[in-house]
Each structure stands twice: as C-alpha cells, then as structure tokens.
Write a structure and sequence with these properties.
- Helices cover 63% and strands 0% of the residues.
- It is built from 6 helices and no strands.
- The protein has helices spanning 4-10, 27-30, 64-115, 121-144, 146-169, 179-192.
- It is elongated and about 80 Å long.
C-alpha cells in the first residue's frame, strides 16, 4: 500500500481499484461466424436477455396480468423467431466467409502461377477446380436465401415485441375488453405471414 491509500481510507473514502484494460476485438473477428454451432430454436440460450424483467414487479401491480401475458403466451413465439434469426444470420456469415476464403486461395494460386512464369499444370488444375467449386457454391448459397430468412425472422420477432409494447401502452386498438384477444390474433398473423422475398 502506498502512503496515499491509508490516508484515503482514514478519510472515509474507498481507494480506487486500478483499471483493467478490456480486450477490444476488431469487428471482423468479433462478429465472425461460428462454424460448428448447432443450437436449437426452441430451447433457452445463455445470451437471451429478458424483454420483461424476471424480478418481481411490485411497483407495477396494475400491469401484473399484462406482464404475465408476455411470459405465459408470447415469449416462446418471440424467442423462437429470435433464435431462428440468429441461426440464419450465423449461416449467412459463414457462407460469406467461405466464399471470401475460397476466392483468396484461388487468387493466391493464380499469383503463384504468374510468379513462376506460368505453365505449371498442377497449379492451373487446382485453380480451375477451386474456381468451379466456388461458382457452384455461390449458386447453392443464393438458392438457400439465408439472408432473406434472417431478415424475415428478425422482422417477425421485432413486430411481436412492438405489438406487445403497444398492448402495454393501451395504444391504438388495444383498448377495452378484447385487447388480449386482439394481441393474440396479431401475433398469430405475424407468425403466419410469408417470409420477406
């Protein structure tokens, strides 16, 4: 301890802890896809954040039944769509990383071929095979439409959440006795809606 720390403690102040540096990853690495990630849509995930706080809401007794409606009926639909969006987003990122890496390898093979003056049949065959594989992979990826699926699932999840907040605020049509049934109908319509093309 330094001489300043006991003096601060004697004065009733808490000594400051030394700041620890947090690691800040570059955005490319921070948001890199997980390659062997196979979670289930309808199970709880560790990174799920509560839309409605889990602790007792004693100060909001007038909203108690409305808040219970989220946990009892709506949260499962929201979570399933939220998880589907995250899975499809990861799939989209993974596909793009594979295409970029394949393009980098194909370009490296072409660079090596040019550096040695051309005429190397093995490099030419490897490059042609990889380029053909990447072309086929590109067609397959486009047909799977992971990005559109991700956007559609994310939109549906956020629409369910926004409808619930309109319900809590008793805004628009969410007034009167039929407001719970109206919310349930809206959520069913959102879930049944066609995906974004």
């Amino acid at each position: 301890m330094t001489e300043e720390q006991p003096a601060a403690s004697a004065a009733g102040q808490v000594p400051e802890k030394p700041k620890q540096r947090r690691k800040h990853w570059p955005a490319l690495l921070k948001r890199s896809p997980r390659f062997f990630w196979r979670p289930k849509e309808d199970e709880r995930w560790d990174d799920d954040w509560p839309v409605v706080p889990l602790e007792p809401l004693a100060g909001y007794q007038a909203l108690e039944s409305d808040l219970a409606l989220w946990r009892g009926q709506l949260e499962f639909s929201f979570r399933k769509l939220d998880h589907r969006a995250k899975i499809l987003q990861n799939r989209f990122w993974r596909q793009r990383v594979l295409l970029i890496t394949g393009g980098l390898v194909a370009t490296s093979l072409a660079t090596a071929q040019a550096a040695i003056g051309g005429g190397n049949v093995i490099l030419a065959v490897l490059q042609a095979g990889l380029t053909g594989l990447l072309a086929g992979l590109t067609v397959l990826i486009r047909s799977r439409r992971a990005q559109q699926g991700y956007l559609s699932a994310r939109l549906k999840a956020e629409r369910i959440k926004s409808e619930y907040f309109l319900f809590l605020a008793m805004a628009g049509d969410y007034q009167g006795e039929r407001r719970v049934r109206l919310l349930q109908q809206q959520v069913e319509d959102i879930e049944a809606a066609e995906d974004v093309s």
